[in-house]
Amino acid sequence: MTRADGPRSRRSCLAVPGSSPRFLEKAQGLPVDQVFLDLEDACAPLAKEGARHAIVKALNEGDWTGKTRVVRVNDWTTPWTYRDVITVVEGAGASLDCLMLPKVRDAHQVRALDLLVTQVERSAGLPVGRIGIEAQIEDAQGLVNVDEIATASPRMETIVFGPADFMASINMKSLVVGEQPPGYPADAYHYVLMRILMAARAAGLQAIDGPYLQIRNVDGFREVARRSAALGFDGKWVLHPGQIDAANEVYSPTQEDYDRAELILDAYAYVTSERGGARGAAMLGDEMIDEASRKMALVIAGKGRAAGL
Ligand code: GLV
Ligand code: MG
């Protein structure tokens, strides 16, 4: 979904179990770009009904200023999805930015969610189409269909990699999410990350990396985050307050890169102007800059400005 004020910042996306009033409260004070209040795997089956109402209350009464507010519903193969959507959107639709749909396998599943949300928006008198969708890719079928998933609805905002479910579904020989499986000499995640990134970018969406489960190992988190950040991912899930600063830092440009990007933009604006000789390319120090350099610099500068550098 193209928003008038540009894409939302999602460097750090905090998972908050919807069944925990304590975490729903605590999350409001943490410096994350996004929260997602979870009705899926962080909520036990018997706790889901109560969690729906706790989430509605927290969205309506909490202070989420500065954060993108997302609720993760259950996937369409469960008996819970439609009630998750109806309860949350009817009860707190005006205080909600996106729904996250897990284990998405094809475009129909996104369209079904779009239709249901549209119905609830209409019946509740909410503006139609404002609530976005985040789709999690968590198995081989979802990955194979990722292009059609990315373009399935104008509500689509992000494609999210779900490494825990994904690795289980393809039988990868790794028990530690994010760590390389023993025996493979290269980066076993590269293909999946790149595939998701290409689908997301081709559709004009954001690409978000999933969780790192060893929550006390912040260096491990940082290393895994750096891999997807280097490719161009926009952010990563955080499961614990200890991971937040690392995510915000890794998915922001460094001050040095940001300053350089602004310099390239200024220099390019000058050389292409009449005063600067209306040239198409010029030297900036040892580097030649042209229109492609401007585009690359604009990406870094945009992220740096959003991060307040
Ligand atoms: C997240 O949902 C995951 O499965 O990694
Ligand atoms: Mg999952």
Automatic annotation (TrEMBL):
Domain of life: Bacteria
Keyword list, A-Z: Lyase, Magnesium, Metal-binding
Residues annotated to bind Mg(2+): E138, D165
GO molecular function: lyase activity; magnesium ion binding
Pfam families with a match to the protein in the record: HpcH_HpaI
Required cofactor names: Mg(2+)
All residue ranges annotated as the HpcH/HpaI aldolase/citrate lyase domain in the record: 11-241
Signal peptide bounds: none
GO biological process, one term: oxaloacetate metabolic process
Gene3D superfamilies to which the protein is assigned, alphabetical: Phosphoenolpyruvate-binding domains (3.20.20.60)
Protein residues bound to substrate: R72, E138
Protein known as: CoA ester lyase
Organism: Streptomyces radicis
Taxonomic path: Bacteria, Bacillati, Actinomycetota, Actinomycetes, Kitasatosporales
